[in-house]
Amino acid sequence: MSINAHGRSPLRLAALAVATAATALTAGCAAGGRGKRDTSYVARDVDTLYMAAKDRLDRNQPKVAGALFDEVERQHPYSPWARRAELMSAFSYYVARDYTKSIQASQRFLSIHPGNKDAPYAYYLIALCYYEQISDVTRDQKITEQAKTALTEVMRRFPETEYAADAKLKLDLVNDHLAGKEMEIGRFYERSGKWLAAQLRFRNVIQNYQTTSHTPEALFRLVETNLALGIPVEAEKNAAVLGSNYPGSKWYQKAYRLMNKYAPDTKAS
């Protein structure tokens, strides 16, 4: 399940691009055939082909629209509309949730037009495609890491854009997700009595995801594992950090009770 509910407000720019392109094209162009005939190779003028693609997108048939936008590029590679068709192909596949094709189309656009004014949107679209494929923490997190890389790239390249602002919000959620995965693995090791392996995971959360919601629990788990290892002094240090930064947290209350029970001679701050 994705951690995003497919909020696509920034994509209004792509929708606007479609409308702008349609206005500039010949208004009365026919849309061509239907079904598979729409995407089969039939030589058509650029206006007719582009309008056929737009028509399919408007009628909520984005996958067919993507294939038709691809045809614009293939049949009319030197047309002024070829560049826009490349980006609209990426957008159409994104709407169809064919994320692989959307990423490929976006990357193709960037490889041909790296300095184009729509490049920020292409980078953002790639990030969205990865982001919307993020699964729950019980599964492999390769896609989550790819989403993190892509979102970070948007922020690095275009820091003053609305895409960067949205990427930052999504990056916070991605980091929380990755921290959750570390916690899940750490808890598994802890239940198995593999205290040192568990601690590596909990420390990773504290060091690399310290602004996430999982940090208080990670500190508590370090208290638990240090007590299990017979190192109450280290447990007290973690409890002290927990009390200093999250004094009202349920995890601090649990840590305080543990310290009083198993290390009464060590005072948790």
Q: Which fold does the CATH topology of the domain at 1-133 refer to? A: Serine Threonine Protein Phosphatase 5, Tetratricopeptide repeat
**Main sheet?**
none
In the predicted model, the low-confidence regions spanning at least 5 consecutive residues are 1-36
**How many strands appear in the DSSP assignment?**
0
- Which quaternary structure do these chains form? single chain
> What is the rounded Rg?
26 Å
CATH architecture of the domain at 1-133: Alpha Horseshoe
**What is the string of helix and strand elements?**
HHHHHHHHHHHHH
CATH superfamily of the domain at 1-133: Tetratricopeptide repeat domain
Question: Helix coverage percent of residues?
Answer: 55-70%
Ends distance: 40 Å
Strand content: under 5%
Contiguous helical run count: 13
Task: Give the overall pLDDT as a whole number.
Answer: 85
Shape: elongated
Assigned CATH class of the domain at 1-133? Mainly Alpha
Overall structural class, as computed from helix and strand content, comes to mainly alpha
Quick recap of the structure?
The protein has helices at 12-24, 36-39, 46-58, 62-75, 80-95, 99-112, 119-131, 142-157, 162-191, 195-208, 215-228, 232-245, 250-262.
